[in-house]
Amino acid sequence: MGLRPTGRGWALGIAGVALVLLGVGLGTVDLVRIGTLTTLLTVGATVVVGILDPGRGRHRLLVARDAHPNPVHAGEQARVEVRITASDPAARVRLAGLRFAEQAATELSGGRPLRARVSRGPQQVTVSYAVDAARRGRWQLGPLVVTRSDPFGVARTSATLGDHAEVVVWPAVTALPTASDVLVGEPDRVALGARTPSTDDASLRDYREGDDLRRVHWRSSARRGALMVRSDERAGMRPVSVLLDLPAKLTALEWTISLAASMALAMLEGGHPVRLVGGRTGAPTPFHHGRSGPTARSALLDSTVDLESPRSAEEAEQHLLAAAHLLETSEAGGEILLAVLGPLGVHARAALAHLADTAQGWAVVRADGASPAHEREAQHTVLALQRAGWRACAVTPGEDVVACWLRLLGSAR
């Protein structure tokens, strides 16, 4: 970046100096004049280009960048618009004749140059182009690279304008059929009130994590010293926790997160409070309520953006055990627990088996077929979970998400 002569400029400058020296040596005035004009042309063009350098001086150009949609799902396309604006006459002079190049992360550009359309006006230039969101994450756009050269191609200056912008890429999701009627059996429906209004609309019960705070009865809560909620109008919709056991392999990681996110959205649209658990230790993920509409959907998907694969199988097991402990200590009794798991070790199987004592567990177990031993471990995990009271089935990373979901629901029969 910066001001520099082009190859033509270097050639003209060297030729000019050589002609001056030759003319002086031979005593030829014409050669000296030609050499002097050539040298002055090179120096003058370089000075003019330097004066009009868009990256220097008080009259800097303003850059604004928008991407729509942002966030975008993996596998989809976003349109980006970059506006370069001149706010005064001096800046408009700098804007004229500029060439533009936009920088983007490989996950957005595919490693190829971006094909942009440039629209020019007297005070503003607009650069628009499309990016393909290849993978979940947070990826940078910019800064904008601008280049100016003189009409003779003697000198060139380059500069970067504006700041970085960020495109957030959500995992790819698939619309799954809502399956509350399968996941919540009739005995549970009667006991927990799922989708069933209370017979006494004025009745109260203790607050459970996942309940809508708008249903808190503050007067009774103050009198009793504990939060009480009204149990009418679907207040008993069972909360759903989606448990993630993340693999180290990148392709399996993205498929796992896509499946888990699709499950979570299906339950959210069915009216259940939903949260994602796993993938990292720390504070519990809050429940998101379908009543919040698009906000809840966005919040769920946002919680998947920064998930990373574990560095080792030991770290993956530690994360899963921490998530199981979180579910056990957050009073998850009565929850629906959906899990996307890999083959589990002894400690992880024991921890998840214990969760089935208070929550209704449903799990898909990855069996990627990499080796017969891996397949046996996956099947052993499925059988162990089923013996503990889970509904479980084996799946293959990369297979159709809807088929996996229907197979899981079919395991109830």
UniProtKB/TrEMBL annotation:
The chain crosses the membrane at residues 9-28, 34-52. The keyword Cell inner membrane does not apply. The keyword tRNA processing does not apply. Keywords: Membrane, Transmembrane, Transmembrane helix. Residues 204-277 form the DUF58 domain. This is DUF58 domain-containing protein. It comes from Cellulomonas biazotea. The lineage of its organism: Bacteria, Bacillati, Actinomycetota, Actinomycetes, Micrococcales.
